[in-house]
Amino acid sequence: MYAAGHLAEHPAGTWIDGTLVSRAPGRVEVDVFDRLPTPWGLVRSGVAPDHPQKKDVAGVFEEIATRDGVRLIGNVEVGRDVTADELAQWYHAVVYAVGAREGRRLDVPGAELAGSCTAHDLVAWYNGHPDFAAAGPVLSGERAVVIGNGNVALDVARVLSMSPEDAARTDIAVHAEDALRASAIREVVIVGRRGPEQAAFTNPELEELMALDMVDIIVDGAEFPTDESPATTAAGARRKRLLAELLARQPRGLPRRIRLMFGHNPSRIIGAEFVTAIELTSTSGHTTVLDAGLVVAAIGYASVAIPGLPFNDVAKVIPSSAGRVDGLAGIYVTGWIKRGPSGVIGTNKWCARQTVGALFDDVNDGLIARRHPLSHAEVLETLTCRGASPVLWNQWRTIDAHERAQGMASQRPRLKVTSRHELLELAHG
């Protein structure tokens, strides 16, 4: 959506270094394809349900989606409904902003057991992603272990520790709310391989964790190595203050707890068919075995290859330079498929600006082939003739209004429809 916004530039121009600059070489029409019937990507399916303020950026995307020349076309997947070669012929230029669709799995014995999953899959499940709604985790064990200590790991720990009453005030998927209501989990252990000063989570996320009313936050001093050198930045000093406060805390005897464990790596997951425990090895070589019914790998996301486009299997990105896909004129990338899964939602704004800037430069330099693209009507006719069921902007608004109305009836932001079949029924009447 940021790429679409830069392409279909606001009449006032684009902010660059504190100045409004008009960069578009002329009127630009943009078709935004999405493989799901619902737009906004991770804003809908990746942001934690108890972080509604982070979803406010959807308002920015809505403004972009209603600009002259911008059209949303949902429920169309490259490789299923259209090929990359066809898109290259249908349009003057194509920008791929497909993100990272998989979670990185643990590379240890037992990672294939039931009860071992990635944070990507778990987050998609509790956020109601249609591809993951029917395949949720079993929450029958008293302890869950999360490997990794970035912001996603903290999100997972908070959601797994959430009370049913708190969950009912969010837009969490109903199937996840029901599972949390019946959950036996009483402790979530967040395991990081390095010390707390090197942890990937941000200070605000740690502060939010420490502010939870109904969850004890616990750390064992023996497993809490700290860097004694003075902090060199304000953020580093703040991190040290938070860690000192956390270390000094006494458990309050609350029914649920989150335990921070630093300086450990998973060495194997134990169980016959289902996870029953996990073995951790400390940096000093000491081994600890924790009983667990759920192990979540929160060690990053990974992009997947798109048929017909080059792909770097090691970096998990489409190789490019300043957004230009290597060896393919008129084909561009932005977001995680361009630079890897890093940064926050807003990071994609400057990333898209760089890519669209390169695209505009190529137009001005005559480097993009002067194709004769299909009209919008021809694109839709071609897709529907081959059996696709595109979801357009007004049809998404019907879904959106339905979810909001259902949510209002139960005093929550929205009640998500999580079945692709039901989403398409709502869209197409």
Structural summary, described in words:
This protein has a six-stranded parallel sheet. Strands 3-4-20 form a three-stranded mixed sheet. The model has no long low-confidence stretch (mean pLDDT 92). The chain has two domains: 2-101 and 303-428, NAD(P)-binding Rossmann-like Domain (Rossmann fold, 3-Layer(aba) Sandwich), CATH 3.40.50.720; 103-300, FAD/NAD(P)-binding domain (3-Layer(bba) Sandwich). Strand 12 (264-271) and strand 13 (275-282) form a beta hairpin. It is α/β, with parallel strands linked by helices. It is globular, with a radius of gyration of 23 Å. The longest helix is centred in the last third of the chain and has 18 residues, at 347-364. The chain has helices spanning 2-7, 42-45, 58-65, 84-90, 119-126, 151-160, 164-167, 174-182, 203-210, 234-248, 336-339, 347-364, 376-385, 393-409, 420-428, and strands at 14-16, 19-21, 30-33, 70-74, 94-96, 102-103, 116-118, 143-147, 187-191, 215-219, 256-261, 264-271, 275-282, 287-291, 294-297, 301-302, 320-321, 324-325, 331-333, 391-392. Helix 9 runs parallel beside helix 10 (234-248) and helix 14 packs across helix 15.
